[in-house]
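Re-running the complex after MR caught last week's input typo. The corrected sequence lines follow. Everything else is unchanged.
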Amino acid sequence: MHIVVVGLSHKTAPVEVREKLAVPESRLGEALTRLCSYSGVKEGLLLSTCNRVEVYAVVDEIEAGYGRIQEFLADAHFSVSSEQLTPHLYWHSGDRAIGHLFRVAASLDSMIIGESQILGQLKDAFEVALTHKTTSVILNKVVKKAISVAKRVRTETKIAEMAVSVSYAAVELARKIFSDLSEKTVLLVGAGEMAKLAARHFVANGVRHVRVTTRSPYQASELADKFKGTSVPFELFGEDMASADIVLVSTGAAHYLISSDEVQRAVKQRMNRPMFLIDISVPRNIDPAVRHIDNAFLFDIDDLKVRVEQNREDRLREAEKAEQMVIEEVGILRQWFQSLEVTPTIVALKNRVDDIKRTELEKALGRLSHLSVQERELVEGMASTIVNKLIHSTLVTLKTEANSSEGVAFVEAARRFFKLGESPSSMQNGLSTSSAGESDLVRADEDSPVEGLTPPSVLHDPRGGGD
Amino acid sequence: MATGFFMVTMALYFGATILFLAYLLRRAEALSTVSLGITAAGFCTHTVAIVARMMGTTGVSTPTFHEALSFFSWMLILVFLAVEFRHRLHVIGSFIVPLALVSLVSAAALPDTVPTLRPMFGTLWVHVTLSMLGTVGFAVAFVAGVMYLIQDGLLKSKRFNVLYSKLPALDFLDHLNQQSIVLGFPLLTLGIITGAISAEFVRGTYVSWNPEQTWALVTWLFYFAVLVGRLTVGWRAKRAAYLTIIGFAGVILTLVGVVLKSYGPVS
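Corrected-run output:
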């Protein structure tokens, strides 16, 4: 049972390749079902966004699994062959696969580090997989953990705090001028894409009053409707400017639309209340001399980009902290993952019943001090036989189901029935140091599962720190 | 006991000042939390020191300069803790706590036997307390003004440094500036009135036009103009920041004048 990831992202493949492999949301379920129909693929999750297409799966054999998934990816599009894909793909298994998912979820692998979209996309992908029942014990656990790791990274680092797009930067700057954006008015001049995007960010951040002006009155009123605002005739907006706290300009005009004098007048009308002017047009539409007017703060596209660049650097610093968290969390999950292996479960189960047997024997024999040595052995033998017979069928089932598709579920069930603990960290410490010794022990036991007269102390040792 | 607590307070404010100043330049939120804790501890010892002193005083209640400045410093920290509690703005501490420390050190430097004014009237402490409360308002306005000018300068020159990210929004600072003057001005007015009444009782004249009284009146007129200017012709934002800084300089000069004058006859 291995967890693997095969995929490509903005780091390994150009958009021409990514767009071919991208699976539209409507066909995600169908694709997942197809993925899980490949032999050896036990569980599957497909994450398809504009920046990445990744398949997470639980497979029997790592190498064979890689092959199956690559086949699956190539099959999705007629014009792509498996070989053509190879240079763009990456393959990870085990810890590295889990770590990769954590990094993706925490937006450490994103084009814009710290952006929040990817987490939503992962949740959606998981939702589809759950609906189509293509994930089970392992992927469910891993994906849920990835989501919680992403949340931890968001709350414990400042990775998502800083604006890394021009329009976000504009909102961030506005917050340094106005503490409460909800009472502020945005005047949108022109219908440039960037300005519209920025206006949308302002609205998302609480601005309730939007005024729009464009050369075409029709377009202005259409845009105004979109932002639930009002439109202003283009010829009059200069006079109207005083009512705006934030002026967003982005038109195709080749000359200055807003002069220094106009701004000066507006500031005066506003009784020196600060004004925030953002000029996202190239060539610029606001006279740069506005910079020298007190209480008017003009930022052009380059100023905003400087801010974005700075934030990006800060984010990279925060990303390093987040990487540490990912490593830590992968370690925690690894322990759980290892516990799902059959051998340690069998060892733990034997230890558990032996513990019970030993304490009960001690109790009983303590009271029966008059027994002869022979009688004592008889009682001990009986106790051993009872516990071994009780768990015998469980052990056999675990071993036979180990390689079936439900194997993990059986292990999980056995762990719960016998209260073996979900994340046996204490036990794992022992296991990782002496796993070889233990498997030998189990193999030796296999010959005489019922007799199992191995002294408890021997079995007890490998548990290390114990419970 | 009062002196012991007073010294401890001074040490604590000193530590908090160092940390708060370091906080201005470094990206470490923990620094501000620690210095905030130290400031709060200092405030407690300061309170104990003031109360102990009040209990120890008997006879004529004539506040000394030492007491007046100590009270001023205590009020400043109280205002800071209140603003901090409400807005979670550690950075204000980087400006107010040093000011409180300076005032406390000045208090320590003055022998605490020198009275603010020669004991003329039993209720002189009313005049001193009100004037000091007014001054606290102006001090906060001054701090808000300084912060405003720094943030304004950083925004204008597009220097988005650590300080930029820590300072609050301009309109918040402008509002703080306004509120402080709105609260400080009536208190100073009452302080001046009670002072004049005291003078009337003692000297038989409300105003004797000595330098410090003249200064006090000039300061009062100045703040009156600042307040009216804001409400009528929009003396807000940058201009208000400059004006309150100038005004506070005037207040300090008045205080220094009063102190020097009181020392004159004594020495």
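None of the earlier attempt is carried over here. The longest helix of chain A spans residues 301-339. DSSP finds 18 helices and ten strands in chain A.
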